[in-house]
Amino acid sequence: MKKFAKLPYFIFFLVLVLGYSCNQTNTSKEEETILKGTATVFVDETLSPIIEDQVAVFENNYEAKIKLVSKSESEVLNSLFNEKGAIAILSRNLTAEELKIFRSRKINPKITPFATDAIAFIANKNKQDSIISLKEVISFMQGKSTPSIKGLVFDNLNSSTVRYMKSLAGIESIPKSGVFSFKTNDEVIKYVSENSDMIGVVGVNWLSQPQPAMQKYVDNVNALRVTGLVGNESYLPSQNNIAEKKYPLARDLYIINCQGYSGLGMGFASFVGGDVGQRIILKSGLLPIRIPARKFTITKSQNDEK
């Protein structure tokens, strides 16, 4: 009888051990570090192609899973303010007022500039003009008629491209006629490729990194040379022109990490700003914040040794 009396204690001990083991397993699975775990990143839709490339390489190298959520700039900002511990990628820095809101919540956003891209004006290949004046674009955005522009097409009214052009033109709202919007950059490219009278406004990385299904539409449009507000020279949105600050519609890109702890946001920002991430930027046609170093191996030939 004594032998069987000890049995419940043994079972109780076994349950405790198993419970502890399961709890440890679940904890280790849920643990997030700078290079392991899961995180959601909200990205300005105009920047999606280059960020998708970064995430693919990052996940391939580390035990990490990043869920990318592409939205308009306004929606990304709303997510940044409303989601606890959010990470966002934007084509502008936070304003002083926005920073004040975060600091009132005891959050100090970690902001990492990582690249410079550009807004490109595109036209159907059948269009004869290959140059567009930024002064005329601004006049058109202000509701004035211009002989060279019949219509501008944006991705959507809440996008960073619309916000950028409104700021440049000094207007609060776009004109009621002559300016059109869709939902994505792909839709703008497709529409312009099929309509010769319209000029599209897109993020330049949608031209340099199109999805396979979009290649035929990208092939049927041209990026226009842009004449800036000063001088008569016109420039394409090329990597070199962006680097030399010749192209007038360049903009810096930022990772804004509001996690408040050493999580994947910090690890991903370090990766994108590091050597591998900057090489991905360079290869994409955008301008990295730091030009990655190139390594050369110098060997002596037999003639050198003589």
Describe the structure.
41% of the residues lie in helices and 23% in strands. The chain has 306 residues and is α/β, with parallel strands linked by helices. The longest helix is centred in the N-terminal third of the chain and has 24 residues, at 7-30. The chain is globular. The model is unreliable at 1-7 and 9-29 (pLDDT under 50). This is Phosphate ABC transporter substrate-binding protein, PhoT family. It comes from Flavobacterium xanthum. Residues 36-272 form the PBP domain.
Please give the count of helices. 14
Question: Would you list the SSEs in sequence order as H and E?
Answer: HHEHEHEHEEHEHEHEHHEEEHEHHEH
Distance between the termini: 96 Å
Q: According to CATH, what is the topology of the largest domain? A: D-Maltodextrin-Binding Protein, domain 2
The level-1 CATH class of the largest domain: Alpha Beta
- What's the shape? globular
Q: Give the % helix.
A: 40-55%
| Mean of all residue-level pLDDT scores | 86
Rg for CA atoms: 26 Å
Sheet with the most strands? 10 strands, mixed
Number of separate structural domains:
2
Count the strands? 13
Protein name: Phosphate ABC transporter substrate-binding protein, PhoT family
Organism: Flavobacterium xanthum
Keywords: Signal
Pfam family, one: PBP_like_2
